[in-house]
Amino acid sequence: MTQPTDESELLRAAVQDQFLEVIDRDTAMQRFLAPLRMQPLGREVVALAEALGRILAEDVRADVDVPAFDRSNVDGFAVRATDTFGSADETPRQLRLNGEVLSPGVVAQQNVESSTATIIATGGMVPRGADAVVMVEHTELERGERLALRIRRPVTAGQNITFAGTDIARGETVLRAGVRLTSREIGVLAAIGRANVEVFRKPRVAILSTGDEIIAPGSVPQPGSVFDSNAPTLAAAVAELGGEPICLGIVPDDLLQLDAALQSALQHDAVLLSGGTSKGAGDLSYRVVRELRDPGIVAHGVALKPGKPICLAVTNGKPVVILPGFPTSALFTFHEFVAPVLRAFAGLPAAQRETVRATLPLRVNSERGRTEFLLVSLVHSETGLAAYPMGKGSGSVTTFSQADGFITIGQHTEQIEAGREVDVTLLGHELAPADLVVIGSHCVGLDLLLSELQHRGVRAKSLYVGSTGGLTAAKRGECDIAGMHLLDAETGEYNRPFLSDDLRLLTGYRRQQGIVFRPGDTRFTGRNAANAIAAALSDPHCTMVNRNAGSGTRILIDQQLAEFLKSGQQPPGYAVQAKSHNAVAAAVAQGRADWGVAIDTVAKMYGLSFLPLQAEHYDFAIPAARWDRPAVKQFRDLLAAATIRDRLRELGFEL
Known about the structure:
- By secondary structure, this protein is α/β, with parallel strands linked by helices.
- Helices cover 24% and strands 28% of the residues.
């Protein structure tokens, strides 16, 4: 990507045009839908073998009965029920066997008369005269001049028989238009003899990613490059809604190329562009879209968070949408604005959103002036559901995948206090509770343990809010396990002094915290940790990256900087708070900071130098009432397993 070379180019890059008009969500949706025909795009007939996932375009009525005949449900003997009355082990009833065997598909040649029986298999056609089937287990054969059947248990009329039309009656509507065809529906269609089925045509949705920094997954990343996660995600979302995604690749920030790509994309039923909505330097998508007519752009800028810069356009009945480039913003605005249109085009009914009540364990701040959709993860507590905000921002790739739902914060609300009940709109149709909930400090060793549990069929949910946050969640009964590494300054002991009476401590492992820096940095090389920190504090150009408040590492950092902080000073970068060891290491490795505190395992992953500071204990606080829960016991057993302990040692941990 080229850099500005003179003052005029710098000025043009620095000055960002304003949105055409920031409007509320309802107005934007009304303007967007007005020029669209919210109905299926057409129909087509496909073979049953090609129908999986398609949307049924017609009500389907059965032309036949299912079953088409009276069918035996068991292996046994077709009889008249009255001939079995009074039979018992001591007083069996004897019947004469007819000379045929009714396997499935065989039509009886003999009627079942009084005091006779016919051998019949499961699925066989019940012969005329019979009104019940005796299971073979309740009979015995008597050999003589002629085989005879002795019945030791009576049956009633209709017993062990499925009568014609019991499952599906001729003329019955078995499936209705708008149903997505799964294996179950296809089984019904096959059962009534349908070889072909009429379905709605899939809307073809062109997907374009834009930006010089965007590269395809599998490419070799360069400094500043970003893998294209939006296009694969949007393609999957389109397919989930019954559409056919047409991925047209990545278009660089070039007006001519982008215009040509848009014209090609308009051959399809809808167009999605990702990025280039903010009207800043390099954001060109809106410039080509604004040339569209009939009617063209209907909304550019919606009072939403995330998703404010979305651009909505329609041309000749085709929706053209520029989604924000950040992944969470792109997905949220897709589901808010695009999904309803694609559902209508595909013939799907409007989505019905489900909500649950939950308590916010943390205070939430919001920005006045726009509606905010705050993604949350739900966990079961002793008093109901707790909704933990997923505070990773609109640029996060994982936020949407890990969230259970979202809360809607009105545009006039600035703050929601901790402990308040809120309505959570679920992202899925139902809330599937995890077998194990882990809240607290993150560690790659914990990642190993949870991955192993997943392989063993234990569904685990992890929320990383720091040691203090995890301990608080455990005390409130909102988690099964809290990962923690808190040092008590008075006793010098880790973790145990912080436990309340209703918590138990599961000993984990030790890990080495220390100063991480880029190899060759003479301000740190050859020094011990204490001297390195002193050298860093004496250099106003030496920038640190801090950890988030409440984390065990932040407590350790503040202890090391105690005297410096008491003087009213802060080292450069102190206000920059990373939320994990990996984030600290990445900031140092990429040159955004010169030093930070992280564990040695992560330092090795990022190729950084390391000065040992303190061996800390990473343990697990567990509510006493949950100690013997099956999933918690599996976690405890796993941590004690020799093979797992060896793997933890390989990662650099001490046990």
